[in-house]
Amino acid sequence: MNKHFGMNCLEFCIRGMNQQLIDFSTTNDGENCLKFIKHTGSNSYERIREYVLLYNSVFLAQAMAETIGISLNAHTAWTLINAPSFNTFHKELIETINRNFEMLMSKLTRKQRRKLEALVA
Length: 121
Hints:
Structural class: mainly alpha
């Protein structure tokens, strides 16, 4: 059973607001996310919000893949993120992060927030 099953979107996001968010930056996916957002966000606040969204999007895709019983590779990930169900959940994820961004950031320690600011600078 998927450990994320039955969790609402805000709870899903809150669970990700910890050291794992910072540690994600050292993974291949995290490094690629940082490269991308450094070219898109106009300020640190926007880049951090985009990083939080991309981080949660990766785990949303993983949770959905686990739920439907597929393993993620380049092909299945592409298929999954283009599915209507993913787009529905992703839209909710975007809205949830935008509505609750300040509260989500408050879940990080001061040291984690400073590290995140440095990562997106």
